[in-house]
Amino acid sequence: MKTYNYASRLLFERIALIARDWPGGTRRAITKVAHVRGHDHAATTTYITTTCPATWSPVPVPWSLVTSNIEVAGTGAYDGLQAADVYAGMLNAAIAPDAYGNCSPDYLLECAHQIRRGPAGQVLNFGIKVLGDQSIITGQSWWPLPGK
Fold it and tell me: Where a domain ends, among 46, 73, 100?
């Protein structure tokens, strides 16, 4: 549960920052997340809406932009609810060697322009968050990602 909550916090922080920095002005996010079997979504929603806004963050996070409209739905309820799984699969294929020692970054590179970037075009800690040694990403032959 702690790992899921932490990952959810990172996701919702990024959604809040994107909503704040939206081209044309700040927006409130309506967030729909996919149901995960056996997970206590009510506890995670409470964590996101209550605990996270009360917790210090090194970057000011506009939590009010994401905490009022959170819906948990089945993966077939809305287009895009499986997007996180697709992107995670692309990243995994790019960094995890197959039985022959080969990685396949092609799909990730094709979608690189969709990954959130910082003001100077940086991907790490914006669109890709690494917990631990960043060389798992930066040591890849395809790094840095193309585009801005």
Answer: 73
